[in-house]
Amino acid sequence: MQIVTTETNNSHRRIINPRLNELPDYPFERLRDLLDPLPAPRNLDPVALSLGEPQHPYPDFVGEILHANRHLYGKYPPVAGTPDFCLAVADWLTRRYDLPHGMIEPERHVAPCAGTREALFRTAFLAVPPTKAGHQPAVLMPNPFYQCYAGAAIAAGAEPVFVSALAENSFLPDFAALDEDILARTALVYFCTPGNPQGAVASLDYLENLVALSRQYDFTLVVDECYAEIYNGATPPAGTLQVCARDGDMSGVLVFHSLSKRSNVAGLRSGFVAGDPDLLTLYRRLSEYGGNPSPLPVYAAAAALWRDEEHVIANRALYVEKFDLAERILSNRFGFYRPEGGFFLWLDVGDGEAATVELWTRAALRVLPGTYLSADGGTGENPGSRYIRVAMVHDRAVMADALGRMAETL
Ligand SMILES: Cc1ncc(COP(=O)(O)O)c(C=O)c1O
User: What angle do the packed helices 352-363 and 396-409 form, to 10 degrees?
Assistant: First the structure.
């Protein structure tokens, strides 16, 4: 591994963390490098379909609550959240997943986070020991994957292991099929359902097997469920805590939920982590040292959002309408399928990077090449290279125009 050094002002050379060398450029940086030098047609409004930032409205009460609680901005907020926030979350989990009453104790089984990205990242620092089974620990994740997982694994000193999530496996990775020596040194698994980018939803059986695997090999299981409320059919995606409810054992399991996608408040920076009380004690401990709790008015607004389902139902209906639209416009082209959950189209265009350039230079559409969300995992083959990811985050009219341009261009 190459040692990174940097010049300081007084021109001494100092060694910085060599692990950072392993972090590839973030996908949006790569996208800027790819597209910024290229002109888009001047007669078309550019549309950003690259970033998963929902543009639907959020409830008015968010602003009202922030304003009503503005006198609390002068106070340092508690890293453990407010009792009211934790209670709202515990009640929501119990309702949403039909958990036994009392299974989720607000002060033991819930911790807030200022958006889930940083919390997912931080979790690697509590779950990855210096060695496991006498070797460098492994952190498993699906491939393609939310980039934070790989960054966290590398920063925590683990080897990221990318497990293909391909169309032929319904886009669900088969962690149990890995070699025994990898499983034995696995310290942490990141899994996402509904998945980003393919929108695959894991069944309760799949999650049950994953929880069993985590117990067999004694690793921490992190399930990122931030898209749980955006789904297509009538049945909501299963949650990992439902598996834990069967025997009342949450050990080794953490689930992450966010208001960014559920309630369209990506800028509020609010989510939570729930599950194993021992892991959560460590999580809070780490937060005391280096965490960044949400301001008290944000906890208040977030609690109200977790208590309200009306805006979530309306939000979901908007996505369903837009997937209807995409189905009409794209029909069976580019391997179109309706994702079971989440808000991305994952389109097989043959060469995702070339299609991205074409869509920008001919249609002023900014999408993300699938290859930027995947790794070749040492196989030389990148499972995302044929795809583009399209975030269906704008309103219906903008999406109708953008998808029409896409169909004409590709
Ligand atoms: C799979 C996945 N997990 C987590 C996040 C983080 O969301 P936030 O930090 O806004 O909660 C995102 C955001 O795009 C995501 O796609």
Answer: 110
Q: How far is ligand 1, taken at its centre, from the CA of residue 262, in Å? A: 11
The full set of domain ranges for the chain reads 4-57+311-409, 75-308
Residue range 299-345, pLDDT digits in tens: 999 999 999 999 999 999 999 999 999 999 998 899 999 999 999 99
pTM listed for this prediction: 0.95
Number of the ligand 1 atom closest to the C-alpha atom of 52 = 14
- What is the CATH topology of the domain spanning 4-57+311-409? Aspartate Aminotransferase, domain 1 (3.90.1150)
User: 346-394, pLDDT tens digit by residue?
Assistant: 999 999 999 999 999 999 999 999 999 999 867 778 999 999 999 999 9
Please, what's the largest Cα pairwise distance for the chain?
63
Reference 111, options 126, 128, 95; nearest CA is 126
* Ligand 1 atom closest to 119 (CA): 9
**Could you tell me which CATH class the domain 75-308 is placed in?**
alpha beta
